[in-house]
Design goal:
It contains 1 helix and 11 strands; from the N terminus they run βαββββββββββ. With 208 residues, the protein is mainly beta. 3% of the residues lie in helices and 35% in strands. The protein has a 5-stranded antiparallel beta sheet, with no helix packed on it. Strands 3-6 form a two-stranded antiparallel ribbon.
Length: 208
């Protein structure tokens, strides 16, 4: 229980690559703009004054930890979950492909993310050799792009009318998750969930 070398590991929220990009661009079309500077005013009312903005997120996955469902010595080990045994080598299932995910049956072999042969339940009264978290195998990262298109119309000095369209997860990228990391579970190694879908919101606003 005092094998402190086993405690050396990255933290649960270790993500080596995090890129967040935000931008705002006034589309240069319309009256007093680079394109259509002398545009007919009613036409400018329709196609001028638009702005495009966006937020992009590109994150690495967090490390995984591996446990069993039992505690070795509840009175000594503070009731902590028993760690698994992990062999050296590739911990990821080489044949896993995200595009083959079977949403209808999470136990489908095509949903197996981990190389199950590398993991085992430790013998009785032993703790297992798994470190708290592994950088050799990570969960899925996040890729997401949100866009906003909006037009602001000035109506005199006191009033403003805004039209906007928000495109959340604009490229409809799915997010896989729920990797089962308990070696005694029948679903061990399986990806158990997928989420994320494109959403489009339309709105109007009147300021006075």
């Amino acid at each position: 229980t005092y094998n402190l070398k086993l405690e050396k590991a990255v933290s649960a929220d270790d993500q080596p690559h995090l890129l967040k990009v935000a931008f705002n661009y006034e589309i240069p079309i319309g009256r007093n703009q680079a394109v259509g500077g002398s545009m007919w005013k009613p036409l400018d009312f329709i196609i001028g004054g638009w702005e495009l903005s966006g937020i992009f997120n590109y994150f690495s996955g967090a490390p995984l930890n591996f446990t069993t469902s039992t505690s070795p010595l509840p009175g000594i080990w503070n009731g902590a979950a028993l760690r698994a045994n992990v062999k050296p080598g590739d911990l990821k299932n080489a044949s896993f492909k995200r595009g083959n995910y079977n949403f209808a049956n999470t136990n489908d072999p095509m949903n197996t993310y981990l190389n199950k042969s590398q993991f085992s339940d430790p013998a009785a009264l032993t703790l297992g050799n798994a470190a708290p978290y592994y950088t050799q195998i990570r969960g899925f990262g996040r890729i997401n792009e949100d866009f906003n298109l909006q037009k602001n119309l000035r109506l005199g000095e006191k009033y403003r009318f805004q039209l906007r369209a928000d495109f959340l997860n604009a490229f409809n990228r799915p997010q896989w998750g729920g990797i089962n990391t308990n070696v005694t579970s029948p679903a061990f190694g399986q990806v158990t969930s997928v989420s994320g879908n494109r959403q489009i919101q339309l709105g109007a606003r009147f300021d006075f």
